[in-house]
Design brief:
There is one protein chain. This protein is an all-alpha fold. It contains two helices and no strands. It has one domain. The radius of gyration is 49 Å and the shape is rod-shaped.
């Protein structure tokens, strides 16, 4: 009976070894198919990334060109603005020089006050006429 039991025991172990070998083989086959799918997906991902890079490079070049043009425009606007500021400063200095000239009183030049009054009246009439025409 002991011999029969050993034979049965050995037979059970052989069956388990066969099942284990079949399971390992199936697992290896599944692993091969899974790795193949993974390689295919990685290749597709690589193609997508290449397409993305190929499409992105021209956009980045255009952005770079636009940035350079914007910098040139801003630089020329700054130069233009500096020119305007210099012109305004020149006009201010000329007006300040004119206002620093000593004025003569009416006793020295009586005709000057009369001419200024005539100019003021003419400006007033002109302004009135423009408002009246509106």
């Amino acid at each position: 009976m002991l011999i029969k039991l050993r034979r049965n025991h050995k037979m059970v172990l052989d069956i388990f070894l066969i099942i284990l070998s079949i399971s390992a083989t199936l697992l290896c086959i599944y692993l091969i198919f899974t790795l193949k799918k993974l390689v295919i997906q990685m290749n597709e991902l690589q193609k997508d990334i290449k397409n993305l890079v190929d499409n992105t490079i021209p956009v980045l070049k255009n952005i770079n060109d636009v940035t350079l043009k914007a910098n040139r425009i801003v630089s020329s606007a700054e130069d233009y603005w500096e020119g305007i500021e210099r012109s305004i400063e020149n006009v201010r200095s000329k007006f300040s020089k004119l206002t620093n000239i000593t004025r003569y009183d009416g006793a020295d030049l009586p005709a000057r006050n009369f001419i200024q009054n005539i100019k003021a009246i003419s400006r007033g009439i002109s302004a009135f006429w423009q408002e009246f025409r509106k």
